[in-house]
Amino acid sequence: MSANETLPVPAAKRKLGNSEIEVSTIAWGMWRLAENGRTAADAAKLVHAALDAGMNFLDTADIYGFDGAGGFGDAEALLGEVLAAEPALRARMVLASKGGIMPPLPYDQSAAYLASAIDASLKRLRTDTIDLYQIHRPDILAHPQEVARTLDDAVKAGKVRTLGVSNFTIHQVAALNQFLDNKLVSTQPEISPLRITCFENGELDQAMMLGLTPLGWSPLGGGRLANPQSERDKAVAVELDRVAGAQGVSRTVAAYSWLMAHPAGIIPIVGSQQPGRIAEATEAYKVRWSRQDWYAVLVAARGERLP
């Protein structure tokens, strides 16, 4: 491939890790679903927007909606109301959730708590099974063998179909996976054109080695791509805008597509709670990246030339 030939375009669907579950290669995330007094009817419009755009992969967590004073589980509960009102929606989605954080504690993956967290998520979501259950952040005080046993029990009981992790180091992934009978299918690190750590620290290499699907949270750099302030962030925006302008898409869409061009098959999690912005994300499938353009973004993000 020459520098100006385009990289392979991601398919609209792929298998989730080594499982038989087929997911869209762009996901919709619900960490802000329960904000601003959103009703079940309002939430349903967003769910429909994602599904109608071709995103069948929906990601939530029990901590979403928690503001430090109360409301733990609000996002899951709100989605549960949507599913209770329209049960047919459940069959159209691959539902992912996360647990293992217990306010006011930082993290808790003891067997008793993790088992109860899975049951609580099922109850709030008003579903019998969670398609992908992820440990949200690693509990340093939990032995991975104990965590693995609890997760395997949940799979055996039919409460969970597949397993994943979020914010785990490569060694934490390896340790948990070693003890699991039902091997991990996904990992969810923070990935964006402004956070490129996982490109060089081995996380994506490990994902490809183990067959894990990488789910990228905060793919727009926590909103910093929309309004870049630092010289580095502005430099990244310039490179994204150059490709976006040439191909008639927004900087946001270019950012999603840049991640998706990586051979690990990164699935960006779209965090917007606006139907139009959710639908716009699928324009990422139209963007073509040359190696030269792709590396130009990486170099801008590194702030220095490649060795």
From TrEMBL:
<dbReference type="InterPro" id="IPR018170">
    <property type="entry name" value="Aldo/ket_reductase_CS"/>
</dbReference>
<dbReference type="InterPro" id="IPR050523">
    <property type="entry name" value="AKR_Detox_Biosynth"/>
</dbReference>
<dbReference type="Pfam" id="PF00248">
    <property type="entry name" value="Aldo_ket_red"/>
</dbReference>
<dbReference type="GO" id="GO:0016491">
    <property type="term" value="F:oxidoreductase activity"/>
</dbReference>
<feature type="domain" description="NADP-dependent oxidoreductase">
    <location>
        <begin position="26"/>
        <end position="294"/>
    </location>
</feature>
<dbReference type="InterPro" id="IPR036812">
    <property type="entry name" value="NAD(P)_OxRdtase_dom_sf"/>
</dbReference>
<protein>
    <submittedName>
        <fullName>Aldo/keto reductase family oxidoreductase</fullName>
        <ecNumber>1.-.-.-</ecNumber>
    </submittedName>
</protein>
<keyword id="KW-0560">Oxidoreductase</keyword>
<dbReference type="InterPro" id="IPR023210">
    <property type="entry name" value="NADP_OxRdtase_dom"/>
</dbReference>
<dbReference type="InterPro" id="IPR020471">
    <property type="entry name" value="AKR"/>
</dbReference>
